[in-house]
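Sequence, please.
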């Protein structure tokens, strides 16, 4: 018997349609979390710090917070820069791209903007400031009027070991058997 039965949609057909629509909407919603990088893509914290180039350019950089300092009128976030993935989130799988300081007007809670959190920052390069990383001298590019995106904390990696899935998941599949045949299925797993 076909999914249309006697002229209307069967309950299973309606359920599959609703689940497929929900999966598409969920996929669209997750893409909206992406950050579109703007500005000069060829400038990195390392190149700006070492050559002093790019003053006044707008850039989008990201990385891992090294330190957060609240000053009387603004907050400075010292960041270890890393390249950004396709959604603008810093990836720590490669080498760092240099350190930078992002200045944002107002107060930012240091417990939220703590060492180790990932951020993406868009701002204007205001220049380079001499500073220290431990005992070493360092030239920090400074981004003014920064717009900061704080990424959610991620669970710690357990070294690649298997972790049992504690929540159920739903799988939907469609396929063709060739010669005009079509099939589908829904599975629930744990």
């Amino acid at each position: 018997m076909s999914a249309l039965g006697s002229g209307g949609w069967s309950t299973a057909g309606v359920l599959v349609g609703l689940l497929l629509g929900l999966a598409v909407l969920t996929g669209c919603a997750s893409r909206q979390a992406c950050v579109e990088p703007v500005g000069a893509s060829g400038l990195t914290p390392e190149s700006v710090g070492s050559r002093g180039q790019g003053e006044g350019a707008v850039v989008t950089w990201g990385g891992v917070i090294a330190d957060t300092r609240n000053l009387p009128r603004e907050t400075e976030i010292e960041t270890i820069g890393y390249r950004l993935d396709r959604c603008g989130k810093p990836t720590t799988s490669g080498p760092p791209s240099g350190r930078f300081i992002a200045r944002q007007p107002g107060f930012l809670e240091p417990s939220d903007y703590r060492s180790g959190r990932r951020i993406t920052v868009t701002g204007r390069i205001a220049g380079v400031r001499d500073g220290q990383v431990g005992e070493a001298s360092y030239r920090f590019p400074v981004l003014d009027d920064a717009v900061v995106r704080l990424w959610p904390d991620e669970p710690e990696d357990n070294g690649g070991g298997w972790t049992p899935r504690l929540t159920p998941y739903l799988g939907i599949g469609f396929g063709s058997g060739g010669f005009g045949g079509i099939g589908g299925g829904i599975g629930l797993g744990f």
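DSSP finds two helices and seven strands in the chain.
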